[in-house]
């Protein structure tokens, strides 16, 4: 009985805390929600504005430059297949959600990773936090996001950004820690300030590791963006959720194929960018 009461009291405390936060900072959360949706709508418009064939050609060229001719051909054929299945808009909406989420993630994750890589105490704290974020089931992040921001695109971006946060922090921190001390000491010997050492020595050396973190964040963001279709995020996740509710197996399969195509293209292009930077660093 005591255990049940303790659990009930804890649940009530959490609910009251979330309710207090959402009411007290309602105006601030509305501003944040509007800002997030503004960025997302802008990126969606950027992806959907050009004719689909021109954007496919652009993405094919990008894939060619980063991942080779084979990936360029796959990109063109894959995205044309998404258009042929009448899922072009949904694919671009999902890609915009992923890109927006990763942008917000990196704005916080990279500076935090740099600090963690330079400070042992901060690294110890962030390691525990990243372990917590990575072991928590992704669906759990939807609940406080909905409670605070309501249904729609903004809670989807927030929850997706949180899911994609950990690998960017971890790999940025790892890259900073792997910078040879001799490189930094040479820079300091030539009069480099701490800021110059960071931007001209540490970050360039750590860039391949940072980009690997970006790659991992993209993949996690895509998986979460599909889940976020449950709360009205739109895109392919919404199509999967709608098809499951009405048992349209064909539509669900089409949306699933589009998700796989998008995941492979984003992964290969970002991984190709990592390899290019690694070669340039060597």
TrEMBL record:
SUPFAM superfamilies noted in UniProt: MetI-like
Keyword annotations: Cell membrane, Membrane, Transmembrane, Transmembrane helix, Transport
Membrane topology value: Multi-pass membrane protein
Top-rank taxon: Bacteria
UniProt-annotated location(s): Cell membrane
Transmembrane domains' residue ranges: 45-64, 71-88, 94-118, 139-166, 218-237, 249-266
Chief location bin: membrane
Protein name as it appears in the record: Glycine betaine/proline transport system permease protein
């Amino acid at each position: 009985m005591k255990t049940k009461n303790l659990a009930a009291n804890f649940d009530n405390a959490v609910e009251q805390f979330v309710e207090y936060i959402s009411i007290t900072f309602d105006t601030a959360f509305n501003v944040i929600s509007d800002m997030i949706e503004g960025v997302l709508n802008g990126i969606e418009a950027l992806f959907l504005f050009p004719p689909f064939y021109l954007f496919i050609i652009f993405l094919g060229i990008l894939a060619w430059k980063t991942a080779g001719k084979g990936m360029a051909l796959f990109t063109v054929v894959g995205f044309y297949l998404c258009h042929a299945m009448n899922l072009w808009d949904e694919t671009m909406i999902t890609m915009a959600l992923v890109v927006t989420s990763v942008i917000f993630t990196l704005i916080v994750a990279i500076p935090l990773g740099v600090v963690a890589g330079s400070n042992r105490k901060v690294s110890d704290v962030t390691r525990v936090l990243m372990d917590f974020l990575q072991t928590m089931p992704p669906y759990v992040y939807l609940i406080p996001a909905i409670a605070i921001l309501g249904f729609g695109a903004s809670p989807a971006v927030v929850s997706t950004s949180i899911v994609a946060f950990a690998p960017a922090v971890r790999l940025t921190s790892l890259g900073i820690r792997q910078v040879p001390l001799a490189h930094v000491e040479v820079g300091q010997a030539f009069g480099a300030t701490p800021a110059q050492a960071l931007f001209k020595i540490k970050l360039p050396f750590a860039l391949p590791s940072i980009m690997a973190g970006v790659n991992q964040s993209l993949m996690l963001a895509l998986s979460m963006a599909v889940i976020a279709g449950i709360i009205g995020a739109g895109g392919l996740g919404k199509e999967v959720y709608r098809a499951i509710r009405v048992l349209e197996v064909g539509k669900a399969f089409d949306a699933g194929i589009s998700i796989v195509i998008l995941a492979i293209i984003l992964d290969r292009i970002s991984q190709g960018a990592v390899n290019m930077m690694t070669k340039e660093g060597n």
